[in-house]
Amino acid sequence: MPGVPDARRGGIDAVLATRHAGTRKLRIAYELAGPAGAPVVFVAGGISAHRHVAANALDRDAGWAEGLLDAGRALDPANLRILAFDYVGADGSIDAPIDTADQADALALLLDALGIDVLEAFVGYSYGALVGLQLAARHPQHLRKLVAVSGAHRAHPYAAAWRALQRKAVALGQLQCADEQGLSLARQFAMLSYRTPEEFGERFDAPPQVCNGHVRVAAEDYLDAAGAKFVARVSATAWLRLSESIDLHRVDPVRIVVPTTVVAVEGDRLVPMSDAVSLVEGLGLNGRLRVLRSQYGHDAFLKETDRIDALLAGELQAGKQRLTPVHDVNDPIGVSV
Fold this sequence. Notes:
With 337 residues, this protein is α/β, with parallel strands linked by helices. The chain is built from ten helices and ten strands. A hairpin with a 5-residue loop joins strand 1 (6-17) and strand 2.
């Protein structure tokens, strides 16, 4: 059995040649949880995800994927080393177009700095799946297996239109010196694209109310709360540039030779089944498709914990015989933030 689980948080200084924003000096912040010597799995989420995936010995606060790393799960950090990072531009320091290829290149720099030759797997959801596809195409030597959930090789035009309108809401807020209100409205629009009519029909099937002379529907409290929570932790610049990054995303599936499992969710309004099928067809013998039926649509990864865990267990167990322990990472930064 691997050693006693530990956790460390740090950052490396790097120089990154980006595709659209020039060469940038930046700090790549990461968190690594799990026993020294265990195989390393990288976990990445949507554009608002970050390096803190789940509570650990270093940080007891809940992470963005709390539950998926519980004891006994496929991603249990008692058996694996779970690595995650903050996306390039997530701190709002880059007000220029950012590409998913930039994120993959930044991850390659991080792996080199930490002395991690190869990831046992990359588990990516939404934007994380896009980054994983870029890593598999650009740096295949760093990766044994990719699980791409709710992400494809290109942005669907319908989803891109959703995001364009969200960015217009932010821009309108900025024109009125109401950045937070604009970003909150954009997030509320986004929630409608992440979820499904079936879920809203089940949760918010109540008559509208007349409040102060205006009609208020049942879902508005939920949407307002989602917007307020989001603006409290994400800057408008970071969100705008990472939103654009999704629409800039392009990767040729033919370039990917890493074994890749594509997970599509029926009812996902942002990554339709047709795009997932097209991606798997392009991957050829390197790809396989898994389909998840869920009323949560694009957010199924975060809501269907048991079902996602069972799926991940099947994918990771498929290569368990060749799980390769790695030496402890070189971490000259230690627990610096």
